[in-house]
Amino acid sequence: MQDLRELYQDIILDHSKHPRNFGKLSGAHREARGNNPLCGDRITLSVKLEDGRIADAKFEAKGCAISVASASMMTEMIKGKTVDEARALFEQFHGLVTGKPTGDGGGELDSLAALSGVRDFPSRIKCATLAWHALTAALEGQDGEVKTE
Fold first, then answer.
1. pLDDT, tens digit, for every residue of 49-60?
2. What fold, for 2-144?
3. Cα–Cα distance list, 75 to 4, 19, 71 (Å)
């Protein structure tokens, strides 16, 4: 079990130190800002939609390793997904980190398993889900800032 925890920690640290899809997305169709007032994490998520699918996604963030890693992993996972598939992934991911699984992830969330340990630390769940809440707001075209409180 210790080896698995070390692997998970390595994955989170890698995505935190070398985030994928970090930066501004030119030509974005939707954008949302997220804020976790509890710890100060902030994220701006931009998505480009084509034919009902997420063609590209990028984020800019200032926050803890968990929030940055989660955003990095999420943007990798949602590219090419339909809007409905991305929403379903949010529900499945939220279930994973809260310990309240919803439906069958079909193994698709395996790459996000590294973040499942936050369920033991309720304040960290908000860090892990911040980018996902911003994604939901962006997909729904919501203006303003999404908060975890």
1. 999 999 999 999
2. Sufe protein. Chain: A (3.90.1010)
3. 23, 10, 6
**Mean of the pLDDT values across residues 117-145?**
92
Structure tokens at 112: 């996000």
The C-alpha atoms of residue 34 and residue 129 are separated, in whole angstroms, by: 10
Burial class (CB in 10 A: 0-12, 13-18, 19+), 23: exposed
What are the domain boundaries of the chain?
Answer: 2-144
Local confidence band at 103 (pLDDT 50, 70, 90 cut-offs) = low
Q: Please check the confidence at residue 92 and state whether its pLDDT lies above 70.
A: yes
Entry field: residues in the chain: 149
| Cβ atoms of 21 and 76 closer than 8 Å | yes
Among candidates 16, 96, 138, 128, which has minimal Cα distance to 148? 128
Mean pLDDT, all residues of the chain = 90
